[in-house]
Specification:
The complex is a heterodimer of chains A (245) and B (374). Helices cover 36% and strands 24% of the residues of chain A. The termini of chain A are far apart. Chain A has 245 residues and is an alpha/beta fold. Helices cover 70% and strands 6% of the residues of chain B. In chain B, helix 2 packs antiparallel against helix 8, helix 11 runs antiparallel to helix 14 and helix 14 packs antiparallel against helix 15. Chain B is elongated. Chain B starts with a helix and ends with a helix. The chains are: A alpha/beta (245), B mainly alpha (374). At the A-B interface, helix 3 of A face helix 1 and helix 9 of B.
Chain lengths: 245, 374
């Protein structure tokens, strides 16, 4: 891989469920250290795209590589090259913060690296004061950062965030994005879906999906210009949603 | 790497088990409760039935006949009646469950060599209760007859009665119900608990959204499933051991056959039950649904497997349904090994059936489980 080679490369990606086309010939590249937003109303094909990129689902046609791995040919290998954090956070509420980290470390097979990665996650995610606390008793912000920590223990070059800030208070959201920008600066490529357009405004680049089609691709100002002067990202989002409904 | 991943799930599963007080209590408490409840309360060998006597004869002969009835241990003479109406009233009201009516000419006829008639009324509203009493009454009649016949035949025949049928109850000579029930409890408990607990463990992860998270990790579907299920094999063995130990302490259930055989065959049964649990988890979206769908499998287990009701007494259709339940075979194996002391050589058809069930249920459930992960 050369320095400029994209970390994620999506080529003519198509997924059909029966007669419904969820993703229609979508192509884009994502480069190292980018924070890349995939935006669009519900049913636009975001989730399907991400599921294919995570190796959970095979596309009908087209393909993609993530961190140098072909997701069609090696869907299992791709899983150890990425981190995934969902809206549901996927934490065990009856396990403590530390136990959750140990569990996910084990599941990613990080072995003895756990001795150094778990303290790293505790510190970077600002979890130390809650180390022995059951995850179920954590506040939204702590829970979110713990989930993030769990998904990064195996040093994935690519991180998927699926509506990561839903239901989290503004202060915790700010802390969260600080951490994410820090990760990007250190070399992680970050792919985000979100419904908060103020957050999307600060991403490096965006892809707008509507009914499975890629309708805009570029930096936030480029996307805004593509839809017409004077429109905010929020206006664009609402427009697309109305067209969908 | 695979070992590290599986170990992590086991470890997590056991921590969760330990922290979930309700489930833990259910896993350890229910074997004890079921054992004592079934072992002590379910008693089908009814003895000492309260009985009334109406003796019109008032002779040495009639008193000796009453004593014979009492000596069987099946009748406890609690009341003396003075009229037939009184006898009927006592039975009607349930104060006596049986009555012995001896006519006035009893002794006279006996001395002449018969035929004398004695009437025994038995409250047969509960067949299980009445059977023993009826059998005992008939036995009293037969043995009395034999004695009379042989005494009439003279000294030569007295030492050799014409026919002497002796029944020797095998395996459970005291005919204690507990001996029959306790091995059954092992089977019922294993299947019922494993189906519910496995289904709940998986449904809980789905409800919490953690199952979705696990799928994105390098864990394969098979690893997820094995990791979720294998800890409950351990739970199954712990429960089984608890019932065996308590059963032999509380009810003196002898273990005549090889424990190793029981533990080995139990594995097949546990796998089949886990398969059912896994299957239930694919049907249910919530914990409540999981429990409800489990009951679909639990009732036939108790009714049709021969755990409580003898399969021989069932109509052909119910017997035929019973062949479709793994517990039916496992019970025969458990009772065979524990009570009869036989080994696998006598029980291979049942063992083969369990192998088939284990493979069938498990592969089917695994396929369904994999599909629900997509």
């Amino acid at each position: 891989m050369t320095a400029d080679a994209p970390v994620v490369s999506v080529r003519e990606l198509t997924k059909r469920f029966g007669t419904l086309t969820a993703v229609a010939a979508v192509s884009f590249d994502i480069h190292a250290r980018e924070i890349f937003g995939i935006l669009g109303p519900n049913g636009s094909g975001k989730t399907t795209t991400i599921r294919i990129l995570c190796g959970l689902m095979a596309p009908t046609s087209g393909g993609a590589t993530v961190a140098g791995v072909d997701v069609v040919e090696a869907p299992d290998a791709v899983k150890s090259r990425l981190g995934y954090m969902s809206q549901a956070f996927g934490l065990y509420k009856d396990l403590t913060v530390e136990e959750n980290l140990r569990f996910y470390g084990g599941v990613y097979g990080i072995g003895t690296a756990a001795r150094e990665r778990i303290p790293w996650a505790m510190e970077t995610m600002r979890l130390t004061p809650a180390a022995g606390q059951l995850a179920g008793t954590l506040s939204g912000g702590f829970r979110q950062r713990l989930a993030l920590g769990c998904s990064l223990l195996h040093r994935p070059p690519v991180l998927f965030l699926d509506e990561p800030t839903a239901g989290v208070d503004p202060a915790a959201r700010r802390t969260f994005w600080e951490i994410i920008r820090g990760l990007a600066a250190e070399g992680t490529t970050i792919i985000v879906t979100t419904h908060y357009m103020d957050e999307a405004e600060r991403f490096d680049r965006l892809a707008f999906l509507s009914r499975g089609h890629l309708t805009a691709l570029g930096t936030p100002p480029e996307v805004r210009r593509a839809f017409g002067e004077g429109l905010s990202l929020e206006d664009i989002f609402v427009q697309l949603q109305e067209k969908n409904g | 790497m695979i070992r590290e991943r599986l170990r992590s799930i086991f470890w997590k599963e056991f921590i969760q088990m330990r922290r979930d007080r309700a489930t833990l209590g259910m896993m350890l408490g229910i074997p004890v409760i079921q054992l004592t409840l079934f072992g002590y309360a379910v008693n089908m060998d009814v003895r000492h039935l309260p009985a009334a006597v109406l003796d019109f004869s008032h002779t040495q002969e009639s008193r000796s006949l009453v004593q014979r009835f009492e000596a069987t241990g099946n009748f406890r003479l609690t009341r003396r009646a003075d009229s037939y109406e009184e006898v009927l009233r006592l039975v009607d009201r349930g104060w006596a469950r049986a009555a012995i009516v001896i006519p006035e000419d009893y002794a006279r006829r006996m001395k002449r060599g018969g035929p004398a008639q004695v009437q025994v009324l038995v409250d047969a509203s509960d067949p299980a209760v009445s059977q023993n009493a009826i059998a005992a009454a008939q036995l009293v009649g037969q043995s009395t007859n034999l004695e009379i016949v042989s005494s009439l035949a003279g000294p030569l025949a007295r030492s050799v009665p014409p026919l002497d049928v002796r029944v020797r109850p095998l395996y459970n000579p005291a005919l204690k119900t507990a001996l029959f029930i306790v091995p059954g409890i092992i089977g019922v408990l294993l299947s019922n608990m494993l189906i519910i607990i496995t289904a709940m463990a998986i449904v809980r992860e789905r409800e919490a959204g953690t199952l979705e998270q696990l799928i994105v990790t390098p864990l394969s579907r098979t690893e997820i499933m094995l990791g979720k299920i294998a800890p409950y094999v351990v739970v199954g063995y712990v429960q089984m051991t608890a019932v065996l130990v308590l059963g032999s302490i509380l009810f003196r259930v002898p273990i005549r056959g090889s424990l190793l055989t029981i533990y080995l065959v139990a594995f097949l049964f546990i796998v089949a039950s886990l398969g059912l649990g896994l299957f239930v988890s694919t049907l249910a979206r919530t914990g409540a649904q999981a429990i409800q769908s489990s009951f679909f499998f639990l009732l036939p287990n108790i009714m049709l497997s021969g755990f409580m009701f003898p399969r021989e007494g069932m109509p052909a259709f119910a017997q035929w349904l019973g062949w479709g339940i793994p517990l039916t075979y496992f019970l025969q194996i458990l009772r065979g090994v524990i009570l009869k002391g036989v080994g696998i050589e006598a029980l291979w058809p049942q063992t083969l059936a369990l192998v088939a069930f284990a493979i069938l249920f498990f592969t089917f459930a695994v396929q369904r489980f994999h599909k629900t992960l997509d």
